[in-house]
Amino acid sequence: MKWFEYQMEVDQLKAPDDLKARLLAMEPKPDQSPKRKEKAKAIRFPHWKRWAAAAAACVVVAFAGSQALQLGGLTVGGAGAASSAALASAPEATQYSLNAAADNSLDGGAATRSAAGSSTASSVAGDKIIYTASLTLETKDYDTARAGLEQALADAGGWMESCSESSTSGDARTLSLTLRVPEENYQSFLTAAGETGSLVNRSEYADDVTASYTDVQGRITNLEGQRDRLRELQASAETLSDLLDIEAQLSDVQYQLESWQSQLDWYNDQIASCTVTVTLREVETYTPTGADFASRLAAAFAQGWDNFVRGLAAVVVVLAGLWPVVVLAVVIAAAVVLVRRRRRR
């Protein structure tokens, strides 16, 4: 309370003057009031000291975080080991349910192969590769070359899958064959077939389907396990609704099993028997395959002359087929000429 406010309150009191004087003597004078203590100034460190303190704090936090992560990793590892031990000791039905769920998950092939176990991996022996090849041959003796191809196919133990034969206006024949050859005789057949005529082109392809083959085989193993389990449940079903539900699931599993089995059969067929496409053309001049410039130039001139003769023969054949039009055109042209001559006279 300030001095003048205190004095006003004392003056307003209804008391003797000596009492008021004593009360005024009790209040300290304004100049005698205690001074406020000044705030202590904050200690300010130089800039480099502040940066050093911040760096030290970061190092301490990073070290503490790494220690916490290591402890967490050890904890997780221990939990994973405990989970593995629990799964290993689970009943067979529980393991089967986990395998079925893994088969329906998004990662498909990898989960299926894990559920199938080591028996699936051991059943796939070696790489699974599908071989295909293409040959283009030329010959001047068409019948002999065709007989040689058929003999080479018989010696290799193969068979003909499809055949197409055509002939052009110049009596040049072309044969297109799709052949299947056992994998063990694949290279020997290519060598024998290439010797039946002049080899123009030879192409070979190898498609590694090991991953897809393993995936399909794993799915089949898993589906067979589901089918056996559903059959056991079907035999022990107590109500009609349970029986119908199990039969519906069994039908779906059987359909999937047949679909994947057909895919596996196709892989086995393509791997065991290679596909070779052969094109045999009858020519009068072989296509030059050497690197000699003079021989290739001479062959090009000969091929050009043959093309000209064939083209001219084709034009004559076309005109012979249109002889009524040609005769009519000649008659009209003659009539026009005669009419112009008479008019000039």
What does this structure look like?
This protein has 345 residues and is of the alpha+beta class. The protein has 3 domains: 3-31, no CATH class; 48-81; 93-310, no CATH class. Helix content is 64%, strand content 15%. It has a 5-stranded mixed β-sheet with strand order 2-3-5-1-4. β2 (159-167) and β3 form a beta hairpin. α5 crosses α9 (210-235), α7 packs antiparallel against α8 and α9 (210-235) packs antiparallel against α10 (240-272).
* Whole-angstrom Rg: 51 Å
Poorly predicted regions are 31-35, 71-124
Proportion of β residues?
Answer: 5-15%
**Taking strands numbered 1, 2, ... along the chain, how are they ordered across the largest sheet?**
2-3-5-1-4
How many domain modules?
Answer: 3
Tell me the helix content.
55-70%
Q: How many E-type strands?
A: 5
